[in-house]
Amino acid sequence: MKQQLEHIVNNFRAITLGEMDSVSLMKRTDTKFVIHEKDLISVLKEVKDEYRILEIDNQRILTYSSLYFDTPSKKFYHDHHNRKVNRTKIRMRKYLVSNKCYLEIKQKDGKGNTNKTRIPVEDFEPDLSKKSLEFIQNTTKQNFDLEPIIWNQFNRMMLVNTKAKERLTIDIDLSFKQNSSKKAYKNLVIIEVKQQRFDRTSPIVQKLKQRQINPYKISKYCIGMLSIYKGLKYNRFKKKLIKINKITA
Fold first, then answer.
1. What torsion do the CA atoms of 140, 104, 182, 149 make, to the nearest 10 degrees?
2. How many domains does the structure of the chain reveal?
3. pLDDT along the chain (249 residues), means of 10
């Protein structure tokens, strides 16, 4: 299946990082879909003329590694679980193909918008530097007691609509770890459509709809936390876990 995916991905027209600046969409609406990897292959075949794919150093399936931070009480996880509309995620993400690393803050507002702010850092900082702590405090207007809580890694394809201001991220080979605990999700694909506002005429949304695949709210961070930490409150995520386990079985 991986060979099929690579073959299809190589049939897309490429786009460079510089060309993607016009669709950076740091303030946006994110809409997610969860599918099996076998469905991804057929969808990509049908939309290959509607999107270009990010290519860096001749690579189109790019590896990302992230380190998430939370408080000792796991505030960010519980805010998400309890459906708090204004919530925050803080992570460091490394783009392995370019060896660039960023401290990123994602903030959701009550209108469903996501604001993403970031600064470059030299490398992962399990112990946050003074500069990083100041950036977090200035951005969030809060003083969180933060600790490294979970690592994750995945492979990503990034597509850009040739006609509309729309980007897609397609994540596969998702895995999590913290200390000696590890969890990998095979066959799971998370597609995230990033737009100024949700547009159902998007080619990828249309093709997914034809397969009766509808938008599905899911957080890689929360799923990872449940995979690694036992005893977390998860009643509102129970159906999501059942769906994911069915896909990855």
1. -30
2. 1
3. 89 90 68 92 95 94 97 96 93 93 92 86 98 97 96 96 92 96 93 88 95 90 93 90 85
Task: Pick the closest to residue 111 from 216, 30, 217 (CA basis).
Answer: 30
Per-residue tokens: 57: 């150093």
Question: What are the pLDDT digits (tens) for 63-81?
Answer: 999 999 999 999 999 999 9
The domain of 178 spans 2-248
Rounded to two decimals, the pTM is 0.89
- Please, which residues bridge with residue 217 across strands? none
Residue type, 73: S
Instruction: Write the CATH number for 116.
Output: 2.40.320.10
